[in-house]
Amino acid sequence: MVDVTSRDDIEGLTVGVLGGTGAQGRGLALRWAAAGVPVVLGSRDAQRAEAAAAEVTETVVAAGFAAPSVTGADNATCASRADVVVAAMPWDGHGELLSSLAGELAGKVVIDCVNPLGFGKTGPYPLDVAEGSAAQQAQAVLPSSRVVGAFHHVSAVVLADLSQASVDIDVLVLGEERADTDLVQALAELIPGARGMFAGRLVNCGQVEKLTANLIAINRRYKTHAGIRVTGHGL
Amino acid sequence: MVDVTSRDDIEGLTVGVLGGTGAQGRGLALRWAAAGVPVVLGSRDAQRAEAAAAEVTETVVAAGFAAPSVTGADNATCASRADVVVAAMPWDGHGELLSSLAGELAGKVVIDCVNPLGFGKTGPYPLDVAEGSAAQQAQAVLPSSRVVGAFHHVSAVVLADLSQASVDIDVLVLGEERADTDLVQALAELIPGARGMFAGRLVNCGQVEKLTANLIAINRRYKTHAGIRVTGHGL
């Protein structure tokens, strides 16, 4: 059981990233590695994961950070070794892969950042998900894990660029248990400039995932890599 | 045909607000009235609309703004008199009311700000909408109007408080035609501090509507009235 609410506790944990060779997973791994968190990248192909881990290490060191602990492994080994696991695989195959790792992921927090989108002539659009959202699908196939939705809107381009020393975004964090969402908020805040915000239970994760389509529309219109901030008195 | 892209053009227009006696509609009317835009509040009950119009006028004048042009009428008269019409009625009855006004609304921009939410023991949750979103339902029943989605996330409490001279929010604007979304962005920017941002076509309006459930969850956790800003270089 992971039950931590402060950065001190997080620093003892190893974070696994399933789909860690994709742009989003690799970008998150890079930021956590730069912050000193041990990371295991997972992939179907262990060699590809190891190559990605070597690249992340090289990028972190080249940017002037301390040598990180980043390793690569097949997805099952990644899930087994890590204390907290990020699901960053493509939507296509999401449920199947997670389902196959239910044993390795039992008792762990699984952070789902997957956006179920289709791409048509006029751009991206939200896909219907029988369970309501990728996060709810993950929870359905991982009954012994605690799923938290987060990191949907963090631009992979921005994550990859360590010269951006402060990222101007809030990370919306959705889940059922306060301890778990607190943990993920703390992980979000290891990305310099980012703020983790609780944004509801999993039943409200679908629209957060789908909002990524709107950010892509905004990127196209305004030639940017959009993120969001939540405003309001006291925030 | 409304086809304007600057504030100068907007100032010649009358804005109608269907459901103008509700908190959201009245709040928007208040801000536009304070900015000098002629407003017609609509309600099922013309007398209730007239009473709301008198209250809006009184609030605007008491806050030190010039006497506004705010009138009240039944919904059909409101739709007929206005050049641009905001749909701010409750979700329950949304399609039926709009459908009954298809003639009055023909050829006009209809701005839908309705959020299809249910409320359960653990808070709000998104309702399934056969058409995908309230805005798409509006477009389906109003084939001769041009529907734009906007103003979903603007807190009625913040709108109602004219002492908040600058509102720290972006208004996400969704629609099919650039001229129409530009018009609505300009209307959004009559609210001091607000910025109107194009955020995609109507196919991507559902998640914007439903995100209001997340803002309510944020309000409860952080004791605020949350809004959002879009961040990114160049914005």
TrEMBL record, chains A, B:
What organism does the record attribute this protein to? Aeromicrobium marinum DSM 15272
Q: Name one GO molecular function term.
A: oxidoreductase activity, acting on NAD(P)H
Q: What is this protein called?
A: NADPH-dependent F420 reductase
Q: Please give the biological process terms from Gene Ontology that the record holds.
A: copper ion import; NADPH regeneration
In terms of superkingdom, the source organism counts as Bacteria
Sorted alphabetically, which SUPFAM superfamilies does this protein's record hold?
Answer: NAD(P)-binding Rossmann-fold domains
Query: What keywords tag this UniProt record?
Result: Oxidoreductase
Domain Pyrroline-5-carboxylate reductase catalytic N-terminal residues, every copy: 14-116
What the entry lists under InterPro entries is as follows:
NAD(P)-bd_dom_sf (IPR036291), NpdG (IPR010185), P5C_Rdtase_cat_N (IPR028939), STEAP_metalloreductase (IPR051267)
The Gene Ontology CC terms held by the record are: plasma membrane
Name the Pfam families on file. F420_oxidored (PF03807)
